[in-house]
From TrEMBL:
Superkingdom per UniProt: Bacteria
Protein name: Pilus assembly protein TadE
Organism: Streptomyces millisiae
Length: 124
């Protein structure tokens, strides 16, 4: 019974931390001036947020979709594969993929170096 309680607490907490990392990454991407910088900023921001939250991803991907035109929206999708032992603090075999996304609006009163971010994805 105690194992179920521990797992039930860590799962939602980890998802909440991933949602927060996606939020921070989307905001960082929306402030970048170029698509390459937006993807790099999103990736580094998400990595730092997950490290601060104590989430260790076995595999980690960041995708950015959108445009850097003022007033447009940039969406960042994050996928993090974690071991079940990390979620339950028990030696359980297997993994699960936690996913989160967030959209941020690009400031309409700034100038962008390039109009379109297109679609990008990067696996660190």
């Amino acid at each position: 019974m105690l194992y179920l309680i521990v797992y039930s607490e860590r799962g939602p907490e980890s998802r909440m931390r991933l949602d927060d990392a996606a939020h921070q990454a989307a905001r960082a991407a929306s402030q970048a001036r170029t698509p390459a910088a937006a993807i790099a900023d999103a990736e580094s921001t998400a990595t730092a947020a997950l490290a601060r939250a104590g989430i260790s991803c076995r595999t980690f991907t960041v995708e950015m979709i959108g445009s850097l035109q003022p007033g447009s929206t940039v969406t960042v999708d994050i996928a993090c594969t974690v071991g079940l032992e990390d979620l339950s603090m028990l030696p359980l075999p297997g993994t699960t993929v936690l996913e989160a996304d967030f959209a941020a609006v690009v400031d309409r009163y700034r100038a962008a170096a390039t109009a379109s971010a297109g679609e990008g994805s990067r696996t660190p």
